[in-house]
Specification:
Radius of gyration: 21 Å
Distance between the termini: 16 Å
Helix content: 40-55%
Oligomer: single chain
Structural class: alpha/beta
Shape: elongated
Strand content: 15-25%
Largest sheet: 7 strands, parallel
Strand order of the largest sheet: 3-2-1-4-5-6-7
Length: about 375
């Protein structure tokens, strides 16, 4: 099989981008990565050729993390020159409303597009212009990919093209159960969540549920470990004070993705009270580490969690139901172990990252043959 030359358009700072670029390079693909940066890029495989555009100080990013759309027109000539120099077999953009727009404007073929979530669930609903941009990007794409069925269904509102579904799986050799030194004592049941502290992930409902759990359970030591950073951090800390649980809650802050397996091996029960999710990578990471979980019955969660088998699904924005399921797990250690083992096996069978990368490479060759 000849060496495939790939040009990726994506955020060089995103852990998702790093995962795709590094994994494809390790599989023998010649990977070139083009993206916008405002700081040094770390974590990329030395085989990946990184080409960056430094964001000028006067250019502000939008609320969704993308740049003002007029900026893409300014850098388009630079991308066209890069394409002319590299002559890639495939141009693959990640995130439809930003890098996808840039790829569409380049008019290069074949052009593949991966949709991530907010770029289709939120962006096109802002205005007629935003909707038109998304339709334009989808029209230009030769192939469109989603990580979940629910997101593919959303994409179908804006295009009649068939959507390929390739999950953003888990490295089961990195995310696995292992002995890890605990932050709290071995006699403590640790509840935890690894998420950005933003409204979308419903951390406030986790705090409310934890307050209920502490009120109902007096015979066990229980702590809550919240890992992540975000715009709601100060509000959530203040909420924990008002609930009088601040002594039992540790806001750990953000950690590098390489440290996340260690975090999950410190947690006994993971809780994901999101108000919306298009997929659920964090859930799969917890499951791969054999951590039982309680999550909202929403979006992509329903595609990756088998209720009562690999975890528990509860009504969203309902702290009482979250607390009830967590309490059941706290008092039943055998159930925790059973759920955890079933969860890892389910990840191995359906969400093995190595298999997902092979799927994407096969897609590249199919497109090239067409």
């Amino acid at each position: 099989m000849s060496l495939l030359k790939l040009l990726i358009l994506a955020d060089p700072h995103s852990s998702h981008t790093l995962k795709w670029a590094n994994s494809l390079a390790e599989k023998g693909v010649e990977v070139h990565l083009f993206g916008f940066v405002n700081q040094e890029v770390n974590g990329l495989n030395q085989k990946v050729n990184v080409i960056v555009e430094k964001i000028p100080a006067g250019i502000k990013t939008q609320a969704d993390g993308s740049l003002k759309k007029t900026y893409y027109l300014k850098v388009l000539p630079n991308l066209l020159n890069l394409i002319k120099k590299i002559k890639p077999d495939i141009l693959h953009a990640h995130y439809a409303s930003s890098y996808g727009l840039l790829g569409a404007l380049s008019a290069y073929k074949p052009f593949l597009l991966s949709v991530w979530g907010n770029d289709v669930f939120d962006f096109p609903r802002k205005s007629f212009i935003h909707k038109s941009i998304i339709k334009f990007v989808f029209k230009r794409a030769d192939r469109i990919y989603s990580t979940s069925k629910i997101m593919a269904d959303e994409i179908s509102h804006y295009t009649k093209k068939n959507i390929g579904i390739i999950p953003f799986g888990i490295d089961i050799n990195q995310f696995k159960p292992f002995k890890q030194k605990k932050i709290f004592g071995d006699d403590t049941v640790v509840l935890g969540c690894v998420k950005s502290l933003s409204y979308k992930y419903g951390i406030e409902y986790l705090l409310d549920a934890f307050a209920i759990i502490k009120e109902k359970i007096k015979d066990k030591k229980i702590k809550l470990l919240i890992v992540g950073d975000g715009t709601l951090k100060n509000q959530l800390i203040e909420r924990s004070r008002k609930l009088k649980i601040d002594d039992e809650v540790l806001f750990y802050g953000a950690v590098p993705h390489s440290k996340v397996p260690e975090i999950y091996n410190m947690i006994d029960i993971a809780v994901f009270p999101s108000v919306w999710e298009s997929f659920g990578v964090s859930n799969l990471e917890a499951a791969a580490c054999e951590v039982p979980q309680v999550a909202s019955d929403i979006g992509g969660f329903k595609e990756i969690i088998k209720d009562g088998v690999t975890g528990f699904l509860v009504e969203t924005k309902n702290p009482e139901l979250i607390a009830k399921k967590v309490i059941d797990l706290i008092y039943d250690n055998d159930l925790r172990k059973k759920i955890g083992k079933s969860a890892r096996q389910y990840v191995i069978e359906h969400f093995d990252w190595n298999r997902n990368v092979d799927q994407m490479i096969e897609e590249y060759y199919k497109v090239m043959r067409r």
